[in-house]
Design goal:
Elements lengths: L15 H18 L4 H19 L3 H8 L20 H87 L3 H11 L1
Helix pairs in contact: 2-4
């Protein structure tokens, strides 16, 4: 690995563009060969999720909430009771809502809790599926590159084999047949 960088001299003036170009070349070569780390696969999966979200035209704020580790996007059954009104009427509305809330929650909490679990499971499942899809495509690209390389090597070997066969045929046609040469000696004895 150090040999790859031996032509870059470390001194007072460092050519950053040359170094960045070399890094990009190495990344492109690794991608072509299908060599990635887990972090690289995770980055590619995140980029793919972003691409899918853009295609679906999802709001960017929602997308950031979907990607956050705190699951702030999920349904929360413990909501706050408030109103946009003011005055005595507002206090009365909040009081009525607080009195009705336990009755409503008897019917909704288990549904909301179950939906929150399903949402979290699907988010986890989709993220892992995108990561595995990315890993599979990287493996496929690597295998395709390897297959192409092996096919090129096979063609080269076939060409060499034909060349050797033609050389052997030319060598045999110029020399007398071994059976004829030995046949005359055996017949005289």
């Amino acid at each position: 690995m150090a040999d790859e960088w031996k032509d870059i001299e470390m001194g007072d003036s460092i050519d950053v563009t040359k170094i960045m170009e070399r890094i990009r070349e190495r990344i492109a070569a690794r991608r072509k060969e299908g060599v990635y780390t887990e972090e690289g696969i995770a980055e590619l999966a995140d980029a793919r999720i972003m691409e899918f979200a853009e295609e679906a035209e999802i709001d960017s704020v929602l997308l950031e909430r979907l990607r956050s580790p705190d699951h702030s996007w999920n349904i929360n059954p413990s909501y706050m009771i408030m109103t946009h009104r003011s005055g005595a009427q507002a206090r009365m509305i909040v009081l009525v809502k607080k009195l009705i809330r336990p009755i409503v929650r008897l019917y909704t909490d288990h549904i909301i809790g179950r939906q929150a679990q399903i949402n979290q499971y699907f988010a986890h499942l989709i993220h892992n599926l995108v990561r595995e899809l990315t890993r599979t495509q990287i493996t496929n690209d690597g295998l395709t590159a390897r297959l192409d390389r092996l096919e090129r090597e096979k063609e080269i070997l076939e060409t060499r084999m034909k060349t050797f066969e033609s050389m052997v045929d030319l060598g045999n046609s110029g020399a007398p047949d071994p059976e004829t040469r030995h046949g005359s000696n055996t017949g005289a004895e």
